[in-house]
Batch of 2 targets.
Target 1
Amino acid sequence: MVKFENPNGYIEITNSYFSKLVGQTAQSCFGVTGMVNRNPVQSIKSIIKNKVDIDTSNQGVLVRSVNGSLVIDLHIAVSYGVNISTIADSITNKVRYTVESVTDLKVSKVNVFVDAIN
C-alpha cells in the first residue's frame, strides 16, 4: 500500500490497484504477449487464483515506494523477432507516464525483465 499526503489529507492506494494499472498498460504496448510470474510461488498462487479470476494482467508486477517515489518491476513475455530494447524503452516510458498522470506520484524507476519469448 502506498500512502502519501496532499493538502486535503492522506491518500492510500493499494498495491492491487497499481498492479492492475501497470499490467494493463504494459500489455497494451506493441510486442508484449503477456505478463509472467516473478517466481514459482507466485505461479502456484496464480494457478489457484485464476480458476476464480480470469484477469491475469497484475501478475509479474511489483510496485514499491522508496523515498517517496515509486519503483516498478515488470516481468513480461514478448513476441519472437521484435527488438527487446525498443520494447523495454516503450514500456518504461508508457508505464511512467500513465502512473504519473493517473496518480500524480513520481516514478523513479521502471525495471523491465523479459522472462519469455513467444
Target 2
Amino acid sequence: MASQLIVRHLSQDIHVHSGWLGRKKVKAIDDVSFELDAGETLAIIGETGSGKSSLAKLLAGINKPTKGDIFVNGEALRFGDYTRRCRLVRMIFQDPDSSLNPRLPIGRILSAPLVLNTKMNEQERKQKIASVLRTVGLLEEHAEFYPQMLSNGQKQRVSLARAVILSPKIIIIDESIAALDISVRSQIVNLLLELQRNFAISYVFVSNDLALVRHISDSVLVMQRGRAVEYRPTEDLFNEPQHELSQRLLQAYRSEFRK
C-alpha cells in the first residue's frame, strides 16, 4: 500500500539574534523524513524546543521549508498553494480560545473554509455545517453559538469540525487535547479514532503525553534539536527504545505511571 503522506529531507533554517545586532542561521528542522499510511497515526514527541510544533507548521503550510518535499497521495505540496493544501491537510491548534474568533458564531467559522475552497452555495454550506456538527457530537443549533458560550470540550469539537469539513487526508493535532480534563479528553480521543476508522484519515499527533501516544499512535518520531533521532513503530519504541533521549523520556513516563 502506498503511503498517504511522504516527507523527504524536510528542513527549515531560521535566523536568530547573536550578540550585538548580529544574526546567525540555525536549523529549526534538520533533514526530517518519514511516511504515514492512510488511517494511521504518527506521534511526534520530544523535549520542549525540540522542533515538534515547527515540524507540524511546515506540514500544515504555515511556515516555509528551506528544502525538502511533502507528498500527499503522490501529489507534491508547494508552499503558498493554500487551496490545494487546505483540501488535503488541516491542522487543529493548541488553544481553541485563540484559534476560534470570539466575534463570529460557529456557523460563520465553519463556513469560511467552504467559501474559500468549494463552490457550494449558501444552502449547501448550511447543510454541510449541520452534518459536520452532528458528526463531531454537537447539535445543529450550535451553529448559532459563539465560542465563549461553549465548554472547553465543545470548543475542541468545533476545532475538529473545522478540520474535517473539507474531508482532508491528513489532520495535524498540535497538543490540542492536553489541557482537557480526563473524561473530556477520553471523549475527544474516542471521537478522533471513530473518524479515523470511518474516513481513513491519517493523524500527525504532536504530544508529550506518552500514555496517550501509546494508545492512539502506530509509529513515533522522536525529535531533538530539530532532528528526528528515532522513528519506529510505537510498540517497538516503547518496548526497546534505541536513542538516549527516547530512553530518558520513557523512563520519566514509566516513573510517573508507577505513582
